[in-house]
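A reminder before we start the practical. When you read a complex entry, don't treat the lines as separate problems. The point of joint prediction is that each chain is placed relative to the others, so the output describes one connected object in space. Small molecules and nucleic acid strands, if listed, are placed in the same frame. In the example below there are two entries. Take a minute to note the order of the lines before looking further.
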Amino acid sequence: MGSLAVRSAVLLLLLLALPLALGEYWAFQLGLFFLYAIAALGVALCWGQAGFLPLGQALFVGLAAYLSGAALIQWGEAWWVFLLLPFAAIAAGALAFLLGLIIFRGRSESGPYFAIITLAIALLAFQVANSWNAVTGGYNGMKAIPGLPGLEGFSDVYYLAAVALACAVALCGWLVQAPLGTLWRAIALNERRVAYFGYDTAMLKAIAFGLSGVLAGIAGALYAPQQGLVTPELVGFALSADLVIWVAVGGRKRVLGPVLGAVLVGILSAELRERTYYWDLIVAAVFVFVVLYAPGGIGALLAPLERLLPGRRKALEPLRAPASKAPRSAVTLAIDGVSAAAGEVRILDRLSLAVARPGIYCLIGPNGAGKTSTFNMLTGELRAQAGEVRLDGDILSKPTPYRLARRGVGRKFQIPSVFGELSIDENLRIAVWSARTSLLDWLRPATRRWDTPVMAALRGRYPFLDDGGRLASALSHGERQVLELSMALITEPRLLLLDEPCAGLSSEETAQVREVIRWARDTLGLSVVIIEHDMALVKQLAEHVFVLHQGRLLAEGDVAAIRSDPRVHEVYVGAAE
Amino acid sequence: MDPLLVTQALNVLYEVVTLAVIVLGLAIVFGLLGVMNLAHGEFIALGAYVAYVCQSHGLPYLAAVPAAIAACALLALPVERFLIRPLYDRPFDTLLATWGLSLFMRKAIEIGFGGGYKSLKIPVSDSVLVLGTPFPAYRLLLMALCAALIAALLLWYRRSVAGARVKAMVGNRELAQAVGIRTDRLARDTFVVGLCFAGLAGVMVAPLVSVQPYMGLDYVLRSFFVLVVGGLGSPLGLLSGAAAIGGVESAMSALVDRTAGYSTVLLIAIFFLWRRPHGIFGRS
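Here is the predicted structure of the whole assembly.
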């Protein structure tokens, strides 16, 4: 945190000294592009952190500008008009948050379609601004907006813009380092996995979009008095497009990237566009180059400088995390006559099985028997067409990974899915925070220091987990399997679904995982359902075995009973003649 | 029949058919290759400007057809090689890179021809009587040409060996490679053909629209909306999407005004993108 404060203070001082050196014209130009930089910070929050691209951000700039312009025209003389401007920004943020929540709840991916939706909404807003003469002034715009009371000349407004920009940079720097930033980056990497840890990812993305709306709103609210004029152009395509270009060229992953982009590219454009025809061609070419080969943008060049700054990480004292909000009692699960199909293919065929008390259950069966599909059906990724599932006696209707995780159901995937571009520490923390955090905790840096006995015990068993700064992508396959298993256990689930947890592990590693699963069963009192092909492992671990065949339960019982069951033999090695 | 009604009906039909031909190129590139080409509109603009150049040099209008196809193909080849091919597994970046390309092309056109409107003479200026109502002959001719072009493309796609190869590539790229189809080349050719269709559409509509550097933006969004509403990869989807978007827009424009028409289209598009991204007939 120290370095952040130092950085912001230095930046602020520099900014405040600038107009003395440069004069009125530059104070005006720089002030304008500082405002654009604030809006660009919001785009970078969505795109560089949470991984979705808003392509119509001008909508929120424009909305706040019209609101602020109307307020100034009405009450421009009164000092308390300053108190109204924040509401313009908050209104823009609220609209962004609501739009985000509605869109993200409707569809969980955040690919190109989200970008096109936001662009279409911005174009719609342009139509409204352009034709609603009575309110917006139509094509000619809202004219003769008075300046802010008490601020004379361009340099006063410049100072206001500079302070607003410094605050926005500090806010974004805070957010990026807060737990919320880690969760956003995790969503950008693998949203589905984050949902399986019990996070409402649509809500998290909507928060990012809402905050970007607030930042765009701050820019818009100050734009109106700075320019004295708001036209529909501000809402339209051009500014939305420029914001994305500035963020891309400046670097979307770094806090200062969008500021660099907006101020450097923006000001150069404003100056050079008049003088050389080819400037816009160069910008377009640079943009394409950045997309193809340099996703870090100009901001990536700052990385060596940052290392020179003092005050980097001290070892943090761990804090005991609060207890999980998920229920703690032993789980009961009953699958009753469930059928599911994908197209013509019947995957589950009146499957019934029950997990009545804590223990280690193995789910076996030949390929295509419906083992992974059973997990997918439980977590709602495969729709059940008939039958019902009861968790703790309540019927599960429309389960989602998020809701199940909240009720204490964890899952580990067949292909280890950890967050590769996050550090081991961050991966573990995402698990610790699961079902323990509220919105306030996501903003507090102290949440990063949370620790639990389970986490400490796992660290003791697996020393590589202590090397917290390493990126998860640098781990071996076996280590990744262990990391994901550890993450699943740290959430302290009541029911844990493991899909081939030992696939690709050496026999030594397999033995270790076996021990951890037994240990977890004993200390957490949980039920584990393991899909496993390795019969030796099943023999060692299973207290109860379910054999699936063609989507149905073929047999169940302890290992000895299954081994002597002729139907099981028939499925695995063919009928004895 | 009521002449006003006939004219209105013909106008709606005209809007729908020309919209379908505008979309055709993107339907190939996005529908078959999955490339979200945001520079689609600029290739339409390129076709229209080629037509303008041909006409202002006193060449017959038909000369613009091979010229536009050649121009689009020449540009599409390097674009495919350096922009599209490296990004096949990064759809998000494809969107951004083609968007950058569209900014580039738009600006280049503006530098080359100036920012103002260009108007082209209509090649066939007579009007003919349809059910007793006069209607511009060029529009009728255009409708017939568009319908013929779409039908020919469909027939080729369904019946030809090359069409079968494309289908194989779309269905499973690795498997198509394994049975000896050179998917790299096939994807390149498909992309180039798609952009040539865009240029051709530009030549066809140029005399009836205002030709200016920013015309492409409108076309690409509309094309994209048609494909989302209609659903990808089926000719029925293309036509129903064009009917929905073009029909609603021209009907609303006639009943209220142009703003209402365009706004309704945007609302429909937002709804489909959000709730039914696989189109009217698609399963969600």
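Discuss with your neighbour: Chain A has a mean pLDDT of 86. What might explain this?
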